[in-house]
Amino acid sequence: MVNPGFMIVVTMVLLVYGGLNYYIGLRGWQALFSYVPFFNPKVYWTIFLLISSAYLFSRLLEKFLPIVLHEILTVIGAYWMACMLYFLLIILLLDLLRVLNRWLNLVPLGIKQSLNPVLGLVVFVLVIGIISYGAWNARHPQINHYDLTITKQAGALKKLHVVMVSDIHLGTIIQNDRLTKLVDKVNDLKPDLILMAGDVFDEDIESKNKQQVADNFRRLSSTYGSFAVLGNHEYIGGNANEAIKYLNEAGVKVLRDSSEEVGGSFTLVGRDDLSGSRFNGTKRESLATLMQGINPSLPIILMDHQPSHLEEPVEQKVDLQVSGHTHNGQLFPIQFITQKVFEQDWGYLHKADFQLIVSSGYGTWGPPIRIGNTPEIVDITITFK
């Protein structure tokens, strides 16, 4: 039986989404496309409806669509979500200025009417330019380096070179070719340890890519191996257990509310994702429980996908936590929201003996676009004293 509350929420979301798209479409017709010769309203609204609804169709009809058609709709819909955001922001700003002009009469009516197609074209080109840059930016990750000191001895180990990636989001949009480039860049850094801080998969990965992706993961090379934790998207896709099995078989060990002492020098702790309880009904273990039996004299490195509840690792004397999840907002100006939600939504935080690094992520969720931030591979050199 369908939950009535869920249906109400879905209905409200669809109404808001439809209303915003109608507003964008109406302004687009009034300002630009009504001036295009031989372009009548029926053709315009049909094309607009197909583009703006592509992502919804791809999600709702996924089980019934051929794989190729599903991928095409998903990609079109993902790009449209970014276009929708920037069209909405710019059009709202222009409409606000239009309201102010009614009071101040800064632009005479005749000039305003003649500006419509010119202004419409400028807005259209501007948004296409923003999206084009964002698509290029999303495919050119940076390597960001951190030099840290942990005031503990790590056996005979004096330094540890860690490469951390998060939020790869392998799936329909980010496929094996991007993973190939990632593995090449990580191996070029010659790390001692490779950490994947969640959302390795977007929701699921197409069967045609599974073997190629597994082969790529097996190419990862490091002294102490590759480790991962789950993120929220492994749970959203309903494939958390499959993801664990798949990664383990591909040579990446998943730590799910568990720990591992590595080489007698340091301890890795991997937490289950916060979202897990919403999808499987099982609350993750407290960090205090996970820390029982761990040698506190050794350096402790924690992987937790979401940089939330930082008071826990501080209280439990964790030395370093690596996280992802936030994407540093991914699309400007969303980072202003992530900065309010998280104490540290990107970069480095130092509190007493606790240190935190939050990655902006390697991949993208939804639109394969980044504006106002850059995808990254995090390169960390830890000195033990």
From TrEMBL:
<feature type="domain" description="Calcineurin-like phosphoesterase">
    <location>
        <begin position="161"/>
        <end position="328"/>
    </location>
</feature>
<feature type="transmembrane region" description="Helical">
    <location>
        <begin position="6"/>
        <end position="26"/>
    </location>
</feature>
<dbReference type="InterPro" id="IPR029052">
    <property type="entry name" value="Metallo-depent_PP-like"/>
</dbReference>
<feature type="transmembrane region" description="Helical">
    <location>
        <begin position="77"/>
        <end position="97"/>
    </location>
</feature>
<dbReference type="InterPro" id="IPR051158">
    <property type="entry name" value="Metallophosphoesterase_sf"/>
</dbReference>
<feature type="transmembrane region" description="Helical">
    <location>
        <begin position="118"/>
        <end position="136"/>
    </location>
</feature>
<keyword id="KW-0472">Membrane</keyword>
<dbReference type="Pfam" id="PF00149">
    <property type="entry name" value="Metallophos"/>
</dbReference>
<dbReference type="InterPro" id="IPR004843">
    <property type="entry name" value="Calcineurin-like_PHP"/>
</dbReference>
<keyword id="KW-0812">Transmembrane</keyword>
<dbReference type="GO" id="GO:0016787">
    <property type="term" value="F:hydrolase activity"/>
</dbReference>
<keyword id="KW-1133">Transmembrane helix</keyword>
<protein>
    <recommendedName>
        <fullName>Calcineurin-like phosphoesterase domain-containing protein</fullName>
    </recommendedName>
</protein>
<feature type="transmembrane region" description="Helical">
    <location>
        <begin position="38"/>
        <end position="57"/>
    </location>
</feature>
